[in-house]
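Incident log, entry 3
Record: Aldose 1-epimerase (337 residues)
Problem: checksum mismatch between cached and fresh output.
Input:
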Amino acid sequence: MIQIQAFAHKDNHIKHFVLTNNNGICAKITNYGAILTSLTLPLESGEREIVLGFDSLKDYKNKSYLKDYPYFGAIIGRYANRINQGKVRIDGKTIQLPTNHGKHHLHGGYSGFDKRTWDAEIVGKSRLQLSLLSMDGDEDFPGNMKLTVIYELNDENELAIYYSATCDKTSPINLTSHTYFNFTGGEENILNHELQIDSDQILENNTELIPTGKYLDVKHTAFDFRAQKKINQDIKAVENYDNCFVLKTEGKTLKKVAEVYEEKSNISMEVSTDFPGLQLYTGMFINIEGHKKFGPFSGLALETQGYPDAPNQENFSHGFIHPGEVYQHQTRYKFHF
Ligand code: G6D
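Fresh output:
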């Protein structure tokens, strides 16, 4: 079931869509940034909020939030993650994208898809479709890109996100959901959450989180999440996780790639996707003034996506969309509680 609520006092095109399944799970999505603002599970102890977000548009536009901007729950694009110095070669020409994160491009630039008002349409009892036209030259990206994101909450306790896009020129593309999970409902940070990632390798990064093009085996490193372990078990070796894990999804329509478990709530979440990468970010830089529950490590982001800087890395695929192609990916989050 989907209900429509107001979400902005001055702009009645911006709404809040409330999806509820037959088991009492409730997902709230606004067409501002296609943001998942809330996801609650009906625990015996009461309704449990398990994602980081706000219940009003003004909080998403608040200057203190935008200062160390964490992109809570937003759909990110045109290119999620980093592009080295914002430069991309297309048909022999160098395109300069906004360098909005130090020397580099991050998450679609100064005004990426996370800050756009998408068109919204209910396309099924539990399916909300959000559409956006990113015009040629939008944040200096080439080509008119039409994209849709469908959120679906089904009665198998799965929240699915379907991504689809076309573009009339060759363009870099990498979409993701920047949702942060915390199964304690903000009582604790995420360092005691247990995580399993079915990945044998991560992408090697330089000190500015730009991939070198090499793959690093996780064996005997803090990045080894092949067996479930607490996030804080090895985090001291890396201070914070902000790394792209190589997934074994090549040629697969959908594969279970990760699982998160939190003992006190007994909530577990299975993540399945067909994206080739998963950026694990443990939220060290989250620090929202006036919201003490949104401090460092208060949320766990599992950003299923293509690889960072793929347009510049010859041995990385999935960096571009070409005219006539359809970019299609999905990610599913299945909850047990
Ligand atoms: C930091 O490096 C991280 C990014 O990966 C994350 O997406 C952002 O904060 C919100 O820049």
